[in-house]
Amino acid sequence: MTATEHAIELTITAARAASEKKAGHIMAFDVSDQLAITDAFVLASAPNERQVQSIVDEVELKLRDLGSKPLRREGHKEGRWVLLDYGEIVVHVQHEEERQFYALERLWRDCPSIALPADVVSES
User: Fold this and answer.
1) What's the CATH superfamily of 5-107?
2) Is 21 in contact with 58 (CB distance < 8 Å)?
3) How do residues 9-53 score in pLDDT, each as one tens digit?
4) Rounded distance, CA 9 to CA 6, Å?
């Protein structure tokens, strides 16, 4: 099973929103074969809590424009690792330290990557 077209649309929209707010290391994975609860993960990082919050706010705004609201949001107050669960996709915005420590991309490396458009630029 692969991610639905709608999940891919949400994934690309979330990645673009993160890119607009200068997120680093933006990646997306199709986790539909591994998890029954969601189709895709979007990973993004930022060097400080304020930027994590800014990225999260932009992702929520852009996905709301598509008619999607998060079913669950965790970690927003701390701003170190914010998880936005939209059902079909889960967006992880992490402080760079958490991103390096937890290395979600290594955990999910066996899952296929979702190709992101050229306008999704990850800051270094």
Assistant:
1) Beta Polymerase, domain 2 (3.30.460.10)
2) yes
3) 999 999 999 999 999 999 999 999 999 899 999 999 999 999 999
4) 5
